[in-house]
Amino acid sequence: MKYELYYWPGIQGRGEFVRLALEEAGAEYEDVALEADAISRIRAFLEGADISRPPFAPPFLKAGRQIIGQTPNILLYLGEALSLAPKEAAGRLWTHQLQLTLGDFIDEAHDVHHPLGPSLYYEQQKMESKQRASEFLASRMPKFLDYFERVLEGNGGHFLVGRRITYADLSLAQVLAGLRYAFPASTKRALRKRSRLAELGEKVFARPRIRRYLDSPRRLAFNNDDVFRRYPELGD
Amino acid sequence: MKYELYYWPGIQGRGEFVRLALEEAGAEYEDVALEADAISRIRAFLEGADISRPPFAPPFLKAGRQIIGQTPNILLYLGEALSLAPKEAAGRLWTHQLQLTLGDFIDEAHDVHHPLGPSLYYEQQKMESKQRASEFLASRMPKFLDYFERVLEGNGGHFLVGRRITYADLSLAQVLAGLRYAFPASTKRALRKRSRLAELGEKVFARPRIRRYLDSPRRLAFNNDDVFRRYPELGD
Fold first, then answer.
1. Residue B158 burial by CB count (10 A; 0-12/13-18/19+): exposed, middle or buried?
2. Which of A167, A94, A93, A77 is nearest to B89 (CA)?
3. Could you tell me if A160 and A94 lie in one domain?
């Protein structure tokens, strides 16, 4: 099956977690963000009167006649379709639980530059962002990182779940890369103290298909329209 | 199977979405929040060195030997176990997608009183909350409500998915109740214009088992330590 991934052009964003799963599995897919008519094709699904199960927002995935929205839900589906999650029910739920916790982590990393909400620009909430950033770096980021380090340790240090890579490992590596971009000094210090996380991030990004994707023009650079943003004035 | 639900005492919070599913299905469960040693029993799972798949935070559900965390993940599990979701894969994913979108809505309703992050008190971020509330009421709440009204309409107006109640309907009714508590005037106006949502909320809360639960002492009142909070100074 050839998938179609719908996501806003110009950023990695939440679409990137889906891209990494598709790339790791060598799946065939159209990345609609790279097409000139991306926005109108996305809008047709968000606003189309004939769409019986409309997504609330991108990313969403077209898989045959099915349209699947919400990043963790897309990965739940692909985890089974592309063998990027355990086959047994308990392992599949646990992988999904880790993905949802990564989703909370990503939301909080995003909220650093949007504490007053998603409809205002960063420039309209710089002062508040500074406060939120200091809380994120002092308290929330360490709490999330400690949690994932502990899960890795509990599983023998190699992957988050079992003995094979899952979509949760791919997403965790992407989160670490995003944190390295947004908060380079804090992340470097944090990963020095959490060697399993640091190793996982390197190992995932060294996998042949992921490496090839990251080196391709399809992988966009991190930038300040994205979820993870580099604003040195926020205190890192 | 007798389930054990672990959640902080004193609030409905995210645990309430799980409670409503358990109650609607007439499932047997221990609500650990009602026990005197709730906090230490929760901590044993969050911090226990012998827990191989630790939850990041409550709520979590013990189902036999399985410990399942993250509200939407618990509902994904219970949807199948308690027949509160369609049996076929596409319908199950769609129900989960709606739940995840409700989760985003709940997060934004929470962030109204915590724009600078979860580690500070509301009293330390009142000014910022006021700005965030005005954005929420003017832009975000209508967008989410329009979406769910449209999904109800697309499905014939009765339930969100198919012809039977799912956990997503229960959660939507709870969100509407929370909004009615936190922003009574805005919610009243909003539901007058969205009759399917208003009807769904009433219908769900009139179901015999849900009614019995809501009338019982087990149902806590909304309060200002909870996700949905009533602060008239925020502009409603």
1. middle
2. A77
3. yes
- Residue-number span of the structural domain to which A160 is assigned: 89-207
Structure confidence at residue A118 (pLDDT): 80
Instruction: With CB atoms and an 8 Å threshold, state whether A73 touches B96.
Output: yes
- Mark yes or no for CB contact A56/B132 under 8 Å: no
The total number of structural domains in chain A stands at: 2
B10-32 pLDDT, tens digit each: 999 999 999 999 999 999 999 99
Is residue A222 situated within a structural domain? no
Cβ pair B52, B18 in contact under 8 A:
no
Taking each helix axis from N to C terminus, what angle separates B15-24 and B167-182, rounded to the nearest 10 degrees? 130
Q: Name the residue among B53, B72, B116 with its Cβ closest to that of A132.
A: B116
**A170 found inside a domain:** yes
Tell me, yes or no, whether A127 and A173 share the same domain.
Answer: yes
Whether residue B61 lies inside any domain: the answer is: no
Spatial distance between the Cα atoms of A208 and A231, rounded to a whole number of angstroms: 32
**Does A183 map to a domain?**
yes
> What ipTM was estimated for this complex?
0.97
* Residue B6, SS3 per DSSP: strand
| Tens-place pLDDT, residues A185-209 | 999 999 999 999 999 999 999 999 9
Q: How far away is chain A from the Cα of B139, in angstroms, using its nearest Cα?
A: 8
* List of chain A residues whose C-beta atoms are within 8 Å of the C-beta of residue B140: 117-119
My answer on whether A64 and A132 are in the same domain is no
Contact B97 A154 (CB under 8 A): no
* CB-based contact A56 B94, cutoff 8 Å: no
Which token pair is A219? 């992988």
Given phi > 0 = left and psi -120 to 50 = alpha, else beta, which region is B185? alpha
| Domain of residue B135, CATH code | 1.20.1050.10
Query: Any CB–CB contact under 8 A between A52 and chain B?
Result: yes
